[in-house]
Structure formats: structure tokens, C-alpha cells
Amino acid sequence: MARRGDALRAHILDSAKALFLENGFERTSMDAVAARAETSKRSLYAHFPTKDALFLAVIDRVDDLFQGRMRTPSDYADEPVEAVTLFSARFLQMLAWAPILQTFRLAVTVADQFPEAARRIHAVFFESTASTLSAYITGILDLSAPDAKAHATAILGASISPAFEEMLLGVRPTTTEIPDAETLGSDVGLAAIRQVVEARLASVATR
Q1: How many helices (H) and strands (E) does the chain have?
Q2: What is the pLDDT of residues 37-81, one digit of tens each?
Q3: Per-residue pLDDT tens for 2-45?
Q4: What are phi and psi of 97, to 5 degrees?
């Protein structure tokens, strides 16, 4: 049965995402996307009038998928330090997934010609994750939103560095398998992240 409506749109986005990651933004044509999605160019352009619009929609699709896999700190544990530790560890675990690293590299290549796309890719992974953690911290501590966001950003930054930079530059291995939150303990050094979280939350609580 031929795909229509939302099903066709989602299929086009998944096909386009694969092509952008394989070939880059510049070398991916709308013709190639239509062929990969097994749909007509007319149908493709009916959903996405330009390649720029398609690329931005792919980023939105990545956002939905990423946030769904990240969830919120309270989904990981009831105790605050453990919840923040596991959420931060999950962030590092997800960043080690090859398609996400490829998306970051893609953002670098389009930054000059398509800065809006690069900013939105950054927002998908860093801004959204920091906002989710910030909301949780605000709920457990008596902090203003800007202060909570600063602590969330600091915790996430310390949790992923220098591993993220090393993976981005190809000097640290990544995984082609979708990371499973159930294997956080073996995939990520939880003790180091827990130490960062304990110190940061304790410094706030004692003020």
C-alpha cells in the first residue's frame, strides 16, 4: 500500500536523514531523496518546497527521536543525585552513537552556508538536554531558572568532556548500535559523573 499523509512525510524524513548523513547536505539532491523514499518529486515538493526546508524538518525529526530516548531525570531514579547522574550518563552514552556524531560533523560543514541549521542541531542535543535537566534541578532545589540552567550546563559539560571531543575527532571509538539505557553501567564511567553531580548539587544545597 502506498504511503500517504503523515506516514509518507515521516518516511521521506527518515530517507532524507540517511542521505544527509551518508553524503552531506551539499551532495544530497531532492531527486536522490525522492528516489530513496520511493516517491515522486511532486509528492516530495508538496511536503517540503526546498532542500533547506527538508533539512530543517529532518533536524526536527532528530529532535523528537533524541528527546524520546533521553527522557527526563526522574525516569531514571527517585533519588536526585542518582537521577541526575544517570541522565547525564545517558547523554554521554547517546553522544557515542555514530549517527549522532555524524550529525554534529554535518552541522560543522553547513555552519557557514546554513547557520540556522547548525544552531538548531546544537539546540537539539545541548540546549534541549540542558533545559530538561534544568527543569528537574529547579524542581528539587530552590533556584531561579537561570541558576538552574547554569548548573545543568556545567554538569552536562563535565560529564561528557573530554570523551565527546575525542569521539568527534575520531580518536575515541563510537558505537553503531542504538545505545541501551539498561547498559549505562558498563558503557559509561558512572563513578566520575556521580562525583561531579554530588559536588555540584551539594554546593547549591549548602548555600
Answers
A1: 12, 0
A2: 999 999 999 999 999 999 999 999 999 999 999 999 999 999 999
A3: 677 789 999 999 999 999 999 999 999 999 999 999 999 999 99
A4: -80, 125
User: pTM, whole model, 2 decimals?
Assistant: 0.92
Cβ proximity of 188 and 93 under 8 Å? yes
Main-chain phi, psi angles of 4, to 5 degrees: -140, 165
Give me the amino acid identity at 56.
L
Unique residue bearing C-alpha cell 557515542: 96
**188 Rama class: left (phi>0) / alpha (psi -120 to 50) / beta:** beta
Residue with cell 542521505: 19
Q: How far apart are CA 99 and CA 66, in angstroms?
A: 11
Per DSSP, 97 falls in state: B
